[in-house]
Specification:
This protein is of the alpha+beta class. The chain folds into two domains: 294 residues, Lipoprotein localisation LolA/LolB/LppX (outer membrane lipoprotein receptor (LolB), chain A), CATH 2.50.20; 94 residues, TATA-Binding Protein (2-Layer Sandwich). Helix content is 21%, strand content 33%. It contains ten helices and 19 strands. The longest helix has 12 residues.
Length: 403
């Protein structure tokens, strides 16, 4: 099946379709779990290309937007390769503070799982039965971490520590609070696809790139690529179920080549109604239970919630976006000095930070670029920060232009 280019004359139609797709929420996005990135190996290898009717990019975007899958169960395999060390032990090295079993919170709090899912490979079991019943289980060797949403109750349970986190509110505030945590970072192929479609504008090429089979389902592949150079994003491929319109797989490859940075996909999926017992949960005997409202009343910080505008304004002066589309760069002033370095007399800490970044100079002065395979950040010696999914040269150019 040949690719179908989007026509520049249909940009308004595409934007309309993308706005619809931006409202699309995958039912398996279980409340309370945030994941930075997701993956599978290798994408579509050996699964064959089904023969499906021709479809345009606009029609496929509309198919995603119109998708209304309410019932399903399945397995999602997730991984990421940002070029960073495994972050699972970072919390301990920073002295806790994220609820990992210390006195400040519960290890079952969904926000405490974010760093674990930010690197490596993980397997999730998911189930959904409408808007009021979802379950996600993170399988890790002999342990299991689950988040269950059933009506007005949300439970999160960590079998490794035998701790549970519970929220209940008939007004829906518990559901909203848990969902806010999940929405901080996309966690499923559908959520990742939604974010990618939001970013697709006139700086983007959107095409249909053939077909594939994912988890035994025939799918179309939607290919999204930046038109201009300078972005670290090479391409985004979204496998869309040909019958339901549900995104089954999401793959982001870097402009530098090599393995995917983000790769998310179902390995098994079933669209029949899950058993009602799937969403039942009773804490095992001896479980330490933390109530969500208790943490708030005791003055514990909700680490998953962003700070208010005033707080952000104090910490990041003059937040600004340079450029547009895939090459946009966030620029702000920390209001203080740059990162400590060996040359600034910071000793071992400075040497460690120097080893993580590249020293750069320009009209702006000097600073350090910290790089991943996707996002790069330049921190100048006078405390200004330039960050985005762009190359190191693009950051230096932006800093020079702003000087």
């Amino acid at each position: 099946m040949a690719p179908y280019e989007s026509d520049d004359n249909t940009n308004e139609d595409l934007r309309t379709g993308r706005r619809k797709a931006a409202r699309y929420v995958v039912p398996v996005a279980v409340l309370g779990v945030a994941a930075a990135t997701i993956g599978l190996v290798p994408a579509f290898a050996g699964s064959g290309d089904p023969d499906l009717p021709d479809i345009t990019a606009q029609q496929l975007i509309e198919k995603i937007a119109a998708s209304d899958v309410q019932q399903l169960s399945g397995t999602v395999k997730i991984s990421t390769d940002l070029g960073l060390p495994n972050l699972g032990g970072l919390e301990n090295s920073l002295g806790g503070g994220m609820g990992g079993g210390d006195d400040s919170g519960s290890s079952a709090d969904p926000s405490s799982k974010l760093l674990e899912l930010a690197s490596g490979t993980h397997t999730l079991r998911v189930a959904s039965d409408g808007e009021d019943k979802q379950k996600l289980s993170l399988l890790d060797k002999a342990a299991e971490y689950s988040v269950i949403h059933n009506g007005d109750e949300v439970w999160a349970y960590d079998s490794a520590s035998n701790e549970a986190y519970h929220m209940k509110d008939s007004s829906g505030a518990a559901e909203k609070g848990a969902k806010d945590k999940a929405d901080d970072v996309p966690a499923t192929p559908g959520e990742l696809a939604e974010e990618a479609l939001k970013a697709a504008d006139d700086t983007t090429s959107v095409t249909v790139d053939g077909t594939a089979q994912v988890a035994g389902r025939d799918a179309y592949k939607l290919l999204i690529k930046p038109k201009a150079s300078g972005s670290t994003v090479g391409a985004i491929s979204i496998a869309v179920d040909s019958k339901t319109g549900l995104p089954l797989k999401f793959t982001l490859t870097p402009a530098s080549g090599g393995a995917a940075v983000i790769d998310a996909g179902f390995t098994k999926v079933d669209f029949s109604k899950p058993a009602a017992s799937t969403f039942d949960f009773i804490p095992p005997k001896g479980t330490k239970v933390t109530e969500g409202d208790e943490a708030k009343h005791e003055g514990k910080v909700d680490r998953a919630q962003p700070k208010g505008g005033e707080d952000l304004g104090k910490e990041f002066q003059g937040l600004n976006v340079i450029g547009e589309g895939w090459s946009s760069i966030a620029q702000f002033d920390t209001g203080g000095e740059g990162m400590p370095s060996e040359s600034s007399g910071a000793g071992d800490a400075g040497r460690f930070l120097d080893s993580l970044g590249d020293h750069v100079t320009g009209k702006f002065g000097s600073g350090t670029v910290f790089s991943t395979r996707l996002v790069n950040a330049l921190i100048t010696d006078d405390g200004k920060v330039y960050a985005g999914a762009v190359t190191k040269d693009a950051l230096v150019k932006a800093a020079n232009a702003a000087k």
